[in-house]
Amino acid sequence: VTLNARTLAESEQVGQKFAAAQHAESLAALRAIPAGKLLDATRSNRGDFRPNVDGYYFPKPVPEIYAAGEQAHIPLLAGWNSDESPYEVLMANAKQKLTVEQFEKKARERFSDRADDFLKVYTAKDDADALASARALAGDLFIAYGTWKWINLHAQTGGHPVYQYVFDRVRPPLPGKSIPGMEPGTYGAVHASEIEYVFGALDSNKSFAWQPEDHKVSEQIQQYWTNFARTGDPNGGSLPKWPRYSGDGNHVMHLDVAPHAAPDVTRPRYLFLDTDAQK
């Protein structure tokens, strides 16, 4: 749930600038441009997924809709992966060998008088811890905080059960490949790595040497998702119990070889970012 949505007028200006850059003076001219060329032209805007408050689909900003309880009142199952740090951020931090001093300096530049509070939830006890916190912050700003905000608001006003998860299963290392900064054991479940598991499509991706444990995780997730699609509740059969999200930081389901619910130890980070976002 992003807090910086565009107005319709702002969105139209973005579209007009994009069309002008492609030398297209009409919709027909845009449609005549090969799809591959348009995709290449949009690469500079990757990551900008802000909604457009157009007065029709979104009559007002999303947080206001949820705060007023005007969203669809349905069960919700949502979550994120344990290591959502964008690859570009990871590589930049690994290349510059991020130190405690650098991390704390950036924190004070960005958060000013709130830097001490920031450093309590994104700690920097040593250089390795500073790098881990930088990765956590990047992943939180990218997708985790926004998803948490969505879950939290819907739990308050949606009138139906909410189920939160963190996908923890780390894919097998790529055979014969060593990526600097991504050595085995140094990262968690990266962005989008859950997709093959959710759709039961592990064998369609020949890049990884999938293990029996991966197929087990995939089967369990498919059962959870199918149960939820059918009944609005992921539980059923012999699956480990998935409790409802309670809004107090407890009852987050960790999806791995042995699925289990546990308190959300990362919640203080989202509470900090939430306070910062309201400013």
How would the blueprint of this fold be written?
Layout: E1 6-7, H1 8-21, H2 27-31, H3 35-42, E2 52-53, H4 62-67, E3 76-81, H5 87-95, H6 100-111, H7 115-121, H8 127-157, E4 162-167, H9 195-198, H10 212-231, E5 252-255, E6 260-262, H11 267-277
Parallel strand pairs: 1-2, 3-4, 4-5
Antiparallel strand pairs: 5-6
Task: Walk me through what this model shows.
This protein is of the alpha/beta class. 46% of the residues lie in helices and 8% in strands. The strands form 2 sheets. Strands 3-4-5-6 form a 4-stranded mixed beta sheet, sandwiched between helices. A hairpin with a 4-residue loop joins strand 5 and strand 6 (260-262). Helix 6 packs across helix 7. It is globular.
Overview in brief:
With 279 residues, the chain is α/β, with parallel strands linked by helices. The protein has eleven helices and six strands.
Return the average pLDDT rounded to an integer: 89
- Report strand order across the widest sheet: 3-4-5-6
Distance between the termini: 16 Å
**In terms of per-residue confidence, which ranges show pLDDT below 50 for 5 or more consecutive residues?**
none
The ordered string of helix (H) and strand (E) elements is: EHHHEHEHHHHEHHEEH
Q: Measured on Cα atoms, how large is the radius of gyration?
A: 21 Å
Shape descriptor: globular
What percent of residues are in strands? 5-15%
Sheet/helix structural class: alpha/beta
Q: Main β-sheet, in a few words? A: 4 strands, mixed
Q: Helical proportion? A: 40-55%
The tally of strands reads: 6
How many helices? The count is: 11
What features would you highlight for this structure?
279 residues; alpha/beta; two-stranded parallel ribbon; 6 strands
